[in-house]
Amino acid sequence: MKVSTIAGHPTGYVVDSLTRMGKDGWVADLLPRSRVTKFTGRARTLRYAPAGEVSNPVARPMYDIMRSLQPGEVLIVATGGAKCWFMGENMIHEALYSKLGGVVTDGCIRDSAELMEIALPVFSAGISVVPPLKNYAIAELDGPVEIRGTKVRPGDLVHADADGVVVVASELQAEVEQNVADLAEIESAQEKAIRDRIPMDELKKILALKGKPGGKLPR
Description:
Elements: H1 11-20, E1 26-27, E2 31-32, E3 39-50, H2 62-68, E4 74-78, E5 85-87, H3 89-97, E6 102-105, E7 108-109, H4 112-115, E8 122-124, E9 126-127, E10 136-141, E11 145-147, E12 150-152, E13 157-161, E14 164-168, H5 173-195, H6 200-211
Parallel strand pairs: 3-4, 4-6, 5-7, 6-8, 7-9
Antiparallel strand pairs: 1-14, 2-8, 3-10, 3-13, 11-12, 13-14
C-alpha cells in the first residue's frame, strides 16, 4: 500500500504544490549516490554532533538502529553538514536488507562506486575519504532535525527522485496530495497544448493555473 498518492509523481510537482501553498520543504544540494533514486516514505531521524558537545550519546551502533526501523521508512541522518563520511557500503547494505525506503544525509558517504550498485536510494551532500573517527557521536534519535535548512520531524513524508529530496510536513500531506493531483492534470494539458501548437494566449491560461493556489483545470 502506498504511503501517499504522490508516490510516482516527480519531485517537481511536490515543489510546485508547496510553492503555491506558500510553504517550503525542498532540500538543497543533496545528490543521489545510487542507481535507484525514487522513494516516498516516512522519516525517521538521527542526529550526529561533535562528541565534545554530546553529554549523553546514544550507545547503539548504526546497524542496530537500522534494524529497528520499519520497512519503507526513510532514515534521515543530520550531521550539520560535516565533511567526513558517516556511512559506506556495509551500512547501506544493512539498510537494504532492513528494507528501508532510503537514506538521506547532509554529511558525506564513502564507497561511492559500490553504492552505485546497491538497489537502495541514497542521497548525500558529498563523498569523502575523511573518517569521523571519535569526533562525532549520535546525539539524538527521532527528534526534530534540520538538513540544509529544511526541518524534518519523525513521521514527515520524504519524497525523492533523480532531481533531489523534498520533505512534506505531516500536517500538509493531504493538501499537497490534492495539489499534486491537480498539477499532474495541468502538466498533461500543458504538454498536449505545446505539442498541438495552440495559440499562446491559450497556453498562458494553462500556465497561469500552475502557480495559482487551488488552481485546476475546468471540469
